[in-house]
Amino acid sequence: MTRFNELLKHAVLLFGALIVIVPFYQMVSYSLKSPAEIERGIGGFAGSQALMTDEQCVGRNTPDRSDVETARTRFPGQDDSHVLGQLLEEVRAECQVRPAVFNYTSAFSEAPLLCYLLNGVIVTLSIFVIQVVVALPAAYALSKLRFWGREAVFGMVLFCLLIPVHAIALPIYVGLAKLGLINTYAALVVPWTISVFGIFLMRQFFMTVPDDLVDAARMDGMGELAIVWRVMLPTAVPALMAFAIFSVVAHWNDYFWPRMVVTGDRSLFTPPLGLREFKADIDGSLYGPMMATATVIVTPLIAAFLLAQRKFIEGITLSGMK
Amino acid sequence: MVAVDMPPQTRRRAARSPQTMAWLLSAPALALMLLILLVPMLSALVLSFTDYSLGATELNWVGLDNYEKLFTRSSYEKMLWATLTYVLVVVPMSVGLGLGAALLINSLGRGREIYKTIYFLPVMATLLAMAIVWELMLHPTIGMVNRTLEMGCGTWIESLWPWLADGCANGMPIWLGDKDYALWVVCFIGIWQGFGFNMVLYLAGLTGIPRDLYNAAEMDGARSAWERFRLVTWPALGPTTVFVVTITCIRAFQVFDTVEALFPRGGGPSKSAYMMMFAIYEKGIKQNLIGVGAAITMLFLLFVMIITVIQRRLTERKVHYS
Amino acid sequence: MAEVKITDLRKSFGDTQILKGIELKVADGEFVSLVGPSGCGKSTLLRIIAGLEQESAGSISIGTEPVSGIRAADRNLSMVFQSYALYPHLTVAENIAVPLRMRQMTRWQRLPLAGGLMPGAKRREQEIAAAVAQAAETLEIGALLDRKPGELSGGQRQRVALGRALVRAPAAFLLDEPLSNLDAKLRVHTRTEIAELHRELGATFIYVTHDQVEAMTMSDRIAVMMGGEILQCAPPQKVYADPDDLRVAEFIGSPKINVLPAEADAMGRLSVLGRDLPIAVRPGRQTLQIGLRPETLHLARGDAKIVGRVVHLEHLGSELFAQVAVEGLQGRLVLRAAPAQAAALQIGSEAGLDFDPASALVFDAAGMRVREILTAPAKSLAQAV
């Protein structure tokens, strides 16, 4: 009976797991297959990897007049159209690629995916660093210093905790537009520099740090700022790690905000924007490269998650701790 | 330089008072909170009574016109309807599935970690990318979903499942292109993406329940799993549930990535999936109707505030057992 | 109410044996304590009796019925947990009512709201409310009935846990260290109350504790457990005065019993620290140990059997404990003296100790009690030979 129960539970959970994982399977699978295989729904997971012709490569290398002139010596006694045909055959032969290679190379060549990835890294990292630089001293003051107005400041933190930044995106957008900051890195970063949740979290963490530690540092002659960076920061590393994961995951995956403030300027695109642009551009035959792009964008976080699951789950569910 | 020779008295004066120091430490955070959260919130309120648009030279007070539009025009009615449907479907489903998965996984002897990892994958993945993958899977002709369904045609399943029989005879649904399905597909993706997060929070809640309570329940005569759930598990998960419902609600209200990716023209077939966040983006940014966008923003904030206030009430009422 | 009989009970987790063949019979209405250091298996034994854990071998019967394979809910036992295990979301009254509601009401009657409409539900509710009120009165927690456990002090929670156990009349009460989370003063008070409660109810109590004072003061019999075995099960005074095993003698009694190495010569005559004692065991050379309770030692009037130096004094008001370091002994001897003798005991001064040889508890090298003692004076014995 208990055995049967256990089996039943596994059956239910496996069914759920299947539905959860199918899109990931599909994404990677499509990123490996040729357009024909995608079109006809054949080829299993990885496709047959039979050579296919890269039409864009052919398009780029189509022989022109001068090519025909220089090649004429190789095909003596043939008229131009024949030479052209021969050359085209050669080009087509050279443009044979494996579908997987084709998909991933086009992901990077059709759009500046590398640049998008780099933007993603720059934006997420700057957001996290600024959040910490702003939040840590405030959290320290709120937890370890007694000052007039502390309750009011903390009350403000609690109130601001209620406001989702997404909700007030429009007025922030208007403000940035007035400052002429639309289509700049600043626009991508500035609205997220203040993490009220980060302040709250760090304050809760610092409350558990004994006051004696701070007093000992003062006895050693440290100033308040030195205490924040040289005493409190090291003690807060575990909490900061979790917060880092929370923040990085949120902003790497964010699509809404970049969509709001970056219009058209591809050099500022973050990975999700790049993928969206790719989707808007495709003519129907480029599902493979699009899925390759999606795979490239999704992989870094998924890989990190699989390597350090516990930390990630801790970080993402952090907001559950308040 | 001179610091070495400074008389003690001057040095003492140079050291800032703890009061000033505390304010200095929290100043950046305070300033950013004010500029990025509070000022935009107030300006949204102000803008919602105007016909402001970017680049316009003048700004007119229009009173409650914008709000009146929200409650009278059919497109906004559709927006409210779609958003509320989405929230009312996604929240109970993803909370329920999260709880169910957590209970099942928690009761397993082995294999807990693997299910936990799989169910958490969608939380980590870039939602926009996954929405595009789902779109591909739901493609009417080459999508995996319809292909799988078609495999059931002509088998015994068809006789058991009239819906499938209908699909086989008259063509499978075109999902995202069909106004009867579009919103439900968006809901499904929301649930698919979010329930793993709830599951993890519930799992954390479950580990916090003292084993003795289950023993006591057994001694008190609670014989069935359901009785133990009613007597111990469900009440102990109360605080987790309040939190999970709140955060899922707020996230559900913010749905944007899926609808923007799936329905680039906006709102899906007959605006059946026209969500609030998308409306803010469309009105405020694409069409430069800041006033209307601001009014939707205010409505949105109102919803979020109501939910949070309810949550705080419930949390405060809860007496914790130490 | 019923007797509880345990026969050759064994429990192992993997290769570790937690319980190694427990034999115990608790009579109807008896109060038996299971006492021992942590990890001795006493809590496991209680949980197996309760049915919360499965035995590996052996049998248990409650009343006349063997209960192996019967789940805890069906064994008709009540248990008080160390953590009290009160349902945090229920009020005190609701907590106490749970065992009755679960057992006496049908699933339909228990439904919130609709349950009240089921036939018989109202009457049941009233009966239960009356039972709860009575239990609350017994424990003097009537004023707390509407509070939640989170609003109660430790002592109050403990009473609620007791109330939940005694609201129905089970075959036996099982108590798992119920006092260990209380402060010292409250613990003393509550232990009297529990003992009185037991007398009043006349029910079978099985009480687990690591505190020998609790066991001594409350029980009809004490079962001293160590290493998964019951070393001795007897009334408190017998366990104290007549232990079967050196480990029992050392565990029971505070301050701890003094243990001195002793030698028996070929004739079985005993000597301690080179001094002959007027007692003998069965003939044959062997190493022994003798145990002397602090109260059996006294200051010697004339010839002292043991001579040492006072190193520490503990005045407790009604009595005085002196720690005496003796050359050739690793530990210190503890002597109980009357406060009047304080003058004779100065730290650093020499003290001659004497004891009545008849009060010495003799153990063999393995720690087993040697009961065959010949009390003939050593001299006459020697002369006889």
Automatic annotation (TrEMBL), chain A:
It is a multi-pass membrane protein. Coiled coil: none annotated. Belongs to the binding-protein-dependent transport system permease family. Keywords: Cell membrane, Membrane, Transmembrane, Transmembrane helix, Transport. This is Carbohydrate ABC transporter permease. Residues 117-308 form the ABC transmembrane type-1 domain. It comes from the Bacteria. Pfam families: BPD_transp_1 (PF00528). It comes from Thalassovita aquimarina. The chain crosses the membrane at residues 7-25, 116-140, 152-173, 185-206, 227-252, 286-308. InterPro entries: MetI-like, MetI-like_sf. It is found in: Cell membrane.
UniProtKB/TrEMBL annotation, chain B:
Residues 80-311 form the ABC transmembrane type-1 domain. It comes from the Bacteria. It comes from Thalassovita aquimarina. The chain crosses the membrane at residues 21-49, 79-105, 117-137, 181-204, 231-253, 289-310. The keyword Transmembrane helix applies. Belongs to the binding-protein-dependent transport system permease family. The keyword Membrane applies. This is Sugar ABC transporter permease. Signal peptide: none annotated.
TrEMBL record, chain C:
One of its GO terms (molecular function) is ATP binding. Residues 4-252 form the ABC transporter domain. Keywords: ATP-binding, Nucleotide-binding, Transport. It comes from the Bacteria. Belongs to the ABC transporter superfamily. This is ABC transporter ATP-binding protein. It comes from Thalassovita aquimarina.
